[in-house]
Amino acid sequence: MLARVANNLFWMGRYIERSEHIARYLNVNYFSSLDAPNEISQSRQFVLRSMLFMVGEPENDSKKKLNEEEILYKIGLDPEFSYSILNNVKSTRENANSARDLISTELYEAINKFYHFVLNYPAESFMKQGLFDFTVNITEMTSILRAKLRGTLLHNEVYAIIMMGVNIERATQVIRIINSKYNDALNAQGSYGDKFSNSYEWSTLLKCAESYDMMKRFYKKTPTSISTLEFLILNPNCPRSIMNSLNQVYNHVKVLDSSKKYNKNSTAFLIGKVRAEYEFKYIEEIEEDIQSFIENILESLVKISNKMEKEFFDY
Amino acid sequence: MVNTENAIFSSYKRDPNLNDEIFDKNGNVIEIYKKLLKLYGDHSINDYVNLNTKAKSSFFNQGITFQVYSEKSTQEKIFPFDLFPRIIAPEDWEIIESGSLQRSKALNLFLWDLYHEKKIIKQGIVPMELISSSINYLHQMMDIDPPGGIYNHISGTDIIKHTDGKYYVLEDNIRCPSGVSYVICNRTALKRALFGVFNHYQAHTVTNYAENLLDLLESVKPKGVDVPNCVVITPGMYNSAFYEHSYLAKTMGVELVEGRDLFVENDFVYMKTIQGPQKVDVIYRRIDDFFIDPLEFKPDSAIGVPGLFAAYKKGNVTLANAPGTGVADDKAVYTYMPQIIKYYLDEEPILNNVHTYHCSRPDELKYVLEHIPELVIKPVDEAGGYGISIGNRLSKSEIEQVKKQVGQNPRKYVAQPIMSLSVHPTYIDDTESFEQRHVDLRTYTILGKDKEFVLKGGLTRVALQKGNLIVNSSQGGGSKDTWVLKK
């Protein structure tokens, strides 16, 4: 496979996954805030700030009154904002276009439908009443894309490259969501009857990662800070957890170069090393300093991505 | 009017002066279309409107589109597709196929001669001036023996049916003829929309194009290569024909590369893969001559590969088509085709040539300037239907304008009598009915080492504007599925 095309496929995977997480974040936060049990969590300003924080554009002026329609437009359909869902979907298709001869007709057709759906979504109705419809469609269409990836591509190096993109992005987005909701949980503290560890925000966090039902099934208890973080970071059986994503990345990189996994300069080695670190971590260690833990893992993910670029895409 | 009780053809306006391919002079349905018309008659025009909408969105979702560039933005458009197929009878097809093949072979021999001994010029059959003044003649190609002796591996021949019922060639395309992917997509789309009609006709398949192309490309591999590594090279995804490039790579199962994916070392060509460099042996290039290698041709080409031509010269890589083929599909060379065929093959041309006046000859220039309203004036070196003036559609001042242009640069122009392309019933969106539209046919011929292939089908292009004779997609043309019937 051409190095340039491999790079494009890697990013296609990342953009698909990224659009999904942003869309779900908007949906879950907006709709769970409507009947949240405390005043802060229910406040529209609080939710809008959380959304901006998640897409890497935090509003630092705590007094500024944010305009709901503006923020929704910016994150959903603004062609000028590079992190908007619209731009993610455009980039997905652009990367798919350049590798069109390598991916299946079925996958391409699904990506193309996805693109036309977003491109033609009327901005006015999205801002006023289309948030639910739009975001649900995005998450459903990305599910279709994942199914087409798994079901219509040969599980060879092309598939491995795309799935590495998907899983590195998933780990990145889940950790960003954790960061954002952790921040929300801190901010929502002190409003009546709600302490940090039992904050309503933990349930919202799980829903943002589509893991609420799985978590309830596993712990059979109301989510707390510690059980939520443990589940989303360390549980290898939760398909959205950081651990699971790293395991996936490790499996796929081996398809690319099984010979080099013991070479200390290879991507495979680095991924294995990062993975091993979290495999033998326990949650109390993490809880001591969540902030630096989040920073560390984001840094590791960037390192993996850079290493991949050097080993496979550099030309 | 026409003699049929068909509901969807009840309002069909037949102009008796035009050669309608499905109705004869008296308005009766031609034999091979009878069954088809009956089958289409089962549908109401509303069914048809629905099918048409569905076919369109199917093209759109599959991303079978081309880009149209305007000042403000780039738009994605569907290549308009008509649901009423064109049928070619076996006896007609025999003429078309053997005629296309004859021309391609003659052109190949002509190119070999031009880049070697130039016998045809020395013997005075084709004037030297015609070649030496052509910008597409590449002196760099002199004395190079392309692998397998093939220059024009892929040829597209544009053919029309005139009012006399005979087939005429309008143009040979032997640089990078495009459109073959639409032939296959049109078939797929028609099968999806109206699968029932295929049960009643025995049409040849068109989906075997890619396997034959790969087979023939592999036959012209460089010396010493066992299993050749073939690739398709594209200018990039913003090229208007990118869909076709990716389609061909995909269906042949080879890599689609851009110039920046390749590099040349010690006169061998390599592509940059995730496993490191991999040697490339055969390149089906969809980049024009002047852009393939900045070291040899246009130095500012960003889409080419530095050193590619040197590797080609050494015989380490095959380029299909070979550089320098453009000299032979020039519209001025076209006029010598009957002599060229006779000279190299000692055969009479199977397909007719349209009589052409060379403005470079003083007596013919005089005739052209005096008869512009009866002629089509074409620049010799433009593709895509640009720069063509059709005499009977020009106003007085436009005629003067054309006269002036031709007079200033006679070598640049040729003129032909206005040919009347046959017409075919075509569904028109605006009126929601079938109307007569002019059509032509592009056939695809592939030459390999001691083998050849002509795709049994072709691209029927339709001029969608009423009365228009120019069918190129860049000028708003559409297309039809084309069935070649088995004997």
Model description:
The complex is a heterodimer of chains A (315) and B (487). Chain A has one domain. Helix content of chain A is 73%, strand content 0%. Chain A is built from 15 helices and no strands. In chain A, helix 8 runs antiparallel to helix 15. The longest helix of chain A has 31 residues. The relative contact order of chain A is 0.12. The model of chain A has no long low-confidence stretch (mean pLDDT 91). Chain B has 487 residues and is an alpha+beta fold. The two termini of chain B are 32 Å apart. In chain B, strands 3, 4, 5, 13, 18, 19, 20, 21 and 22 form a nine-stranded mixed sheet that branches. Chain B has a four-stranded parallel sheet with strand order 7-6-11-12, covered by helices on one side. The model of chain B has no long low-confidence stretch (mean pLDDT 89). The interface between A and B is medium-sized, with 24 and 21 residues. Chain A: It holds the Pfam family Alpha-E.
In short:
The complex is a heterodimer of chains A (315) and B (487). Chain A is an all-alpha fold.
Percent of sequence in beta strands of chain A: under 5%
Task: List low-confidence stretches of chain B.
Answer: none
Task: Report how far the terminal alpha carbons of chain A are from each other.
Answer: 13 Å
Shape annotation of chain A: globular
| Cα-based radius of gyration of chain B, to the nearest Å | 23 Å
Number of DSSP E strands of chain A: 0
- Which value, in Å, is the CA radius of gyration of chain A? 20 Å
- Largest interface, C-beta closer than 8 angstroms, per-chain residues: A-B, 24 and 21 residues
Class inferred from helices and paired strands of chain A: mainly alpha
Query: Into which percent range does the helicity of residues of chain A fall?
Result: over 70%
The main pleated sheet of chain A reads as:
none
Report, as a whole number of angstroms, the end-to-end distance of chain B: 32 Å
N-to-C SSE series of chain A? HHHHHHHHHHHHHHH
Largest sheet features of chain B: 9 strands, mixed
The top-level CATH class of the domain at 356-417 in chain B is: Alpha Beta
Number of H- or I-type helical stretches of chain A: 15
Stated plainly, the CATH topology of the domain at 356-417 in chain B is called: Dna Ligase, domain 1
Number of strands of chain B: 22
Please bin the fraction of helical residues of chain B: 25-40%
